[in-house]
Design goal:
Helix content is 45%, strand content 22%. By secondary structure, the protein is α+β, with helices and mostly antiparallel strands. Strands 2-1-5-4-3 form a five-stranded antiparallel sheet, sandwiched between helices.
Length: 128
């Protein structure tokens, strides 16, 4: 049974354009989701997130070689041709948060909220 932590409920209900959210462990296990995400869908998200996380981490190595400033992966954005978006953010404990956004979402606001959550003890405590 999926857990629906309050911070994911609040993220979706309190952020315009956020349609669904999920929290995944560094190992790719679903830690929780917003209400309405069924278990099979959450497992699919977790697999995609793990793959994107791996690609993004390798990409930061390329950036670091060119800029002489290696740094950890921060976030990835995937957009479909209709303007709907998946934003994926790495948390300080190596877990990941993702939000699916509608066409008219304010992506900067949602990404900023995700980064704020990812850096908070709320998310780190949830993954423990």
């Amino acid at each position: 049974m999926l857990r629906h932590p309050q911070f994911l409920k609040d993220l979706v209900t309190g952020t315009a354009g956020a349609l669904a959210a999920i929290h995944v462990s560094p190992e790719g296990l679903v830690l929780g989701s917003s209400p309405g995400v069924v278990e099979d869908e959450a497992d699919h998200w977790a697999a995609v997130m793990a793959a994107l996380h791996a690609v993004s981490n390798r990409s930061t190595e390329i950036i670091g070689r060119r800029t002489a400033e290696p740094g950890p992966w921060g976030h990835s954005v995937v957009e479909d041709r209709y303007g709907c978006t998946l934003i994926l953010v790495g948390a300080s404990d190596d877990s990941m948060l993702a939000v699916v956004c509608g066409r008219n979402a304010q992506l900067g606001d949602i990404a900023a909220r995700l980064v704020e959550l990812a850096d908070s003890t709320v998310v780190v405590g949830a993954a423990a």
